[in-house]
Specification:
It is a single chain. By secondary structure, the protein is an alpha+beta fold. Among the domains are: 69 residues, no CATH class; 104 residues, 3-Layer(aba) Sandwich (Endonuclease, Chain A), CATH 3.40.960.10. It is built from 12 helices and 6 strands. The strands form 2 sheets. The protein has a 4-stranded mixed β-sheet, sandwiched between helices. It has a two-stranded antiparallel ribbon with strand order 1-2. The protein is elongated, with a radius of gyration of 27 Å.
């Protein structure tokens, strides 16, 4: 049995074997093996106190830390309000927790006891969930990491724009709805860089069309560059034609 100290962070799992030492193979996620089989994360791990008895001083600190805190399974919760907010209004546990001013653990514990739960499909169809997911997606796509690690097509175009000296924004979020590949605020120009493999899929084509129509309706001008155009032509020349069309100069 392998023992893993809490302060140690296991490296990536290349062998595929569970790090607890059970000899079983873990599942894959995004091409990489998980470090542990679910439920095996704490097998063989040494507790932070190394199984030693707590000192009186530590016991006192632990007791003081729980003063005034009601156990999750004994917290007083108005069941009518809980039903109204969670079941009828379909609010999230976090939202219900803030409204009732009760910890999320207490809410989860009571919902589990009452047997009130939602399926993943039902949760994913709720408006607040869609909005949260959109915000997360926008933050991810417009993060510094996304800007610093463009795909091959984006890198070719970004390098060509940088060479021209024209000011622009990479992975710019607009209206808290979309993230565009390149944005030129001087003339409200949006430049999208498309690869056929992904952007010719029917559902993605529909989203791209809706996005373009929305931006144009809001007064933005949208230009698209496809992978076959970039590969078969000089990127500098492609951009030069676009810049001339919109009177963009450095």
């Amino acid at each position: 049995m392998a023992y893993i100290v809490h302060s140690e962070k296991p490296s990536k799992n290349k062998s595929g074997l569970c790090f607890c030492g059970c000899g079983k193979t873990t599942n894959k996620f995004r091409g990489q093996f998980h470090r542990f089989i679910k439920g095996h994360e704490n097998i063989g791990r040494i507790p932070w106190n190394k199984n030693k008895a707590f000192s009186e001083a530590t016991k006192k600190k632990m007791s003081l830390a729980h003063i005034g805190k009601e156990p999750a399974n004994k917290a007083h919760i108005d069941i009518k309000k809980l039903r109204q907010f969670y079941v009828i209004e379909k609010k999230s546990i976090t939202q219900v927790s803030k409204i009732l001013n009760i910890s999320k653990d207490s809410i989860k514990n009571r919902l589990q006891f009452l047997g009130w739960s939602r399926s993943t499909k039902e949760t994913c169809s709720l408006q607040w969930f869609k909005e949260e997911m959109r915000e997360i997606r926008i933050k991810t796509l417009s993060s510094q990491k996304a800007i610093e690690t463009p795909n091959k097509l984006e890198k070719i175009i970004y390098d060509a724009i940088d060479k021209s000296g024209i000011k622009y924004q990479k992975q710019a979020p607009l209206f808290n709805k979309f993230v565009v590949d390149a944005f030129f605020p001087q003339c409200n120009l949006v430049l999208e860089i498309f690869g056929r493999y992904w952007h010719e899929k029917p559902e993605i084509k529909t989203k791209d069309y809706s996005k373009k129509r929305y931006l144009e309706k809001c007064g933005y001008q949208v230009e698209e560059l496809w992978d076959y155009q970039i590969k078969n032509n000089n990127p500098d020349l492609l951009l030069k034609n676009i810049f001339r069309k919109y009177n963009l100069s450095s």
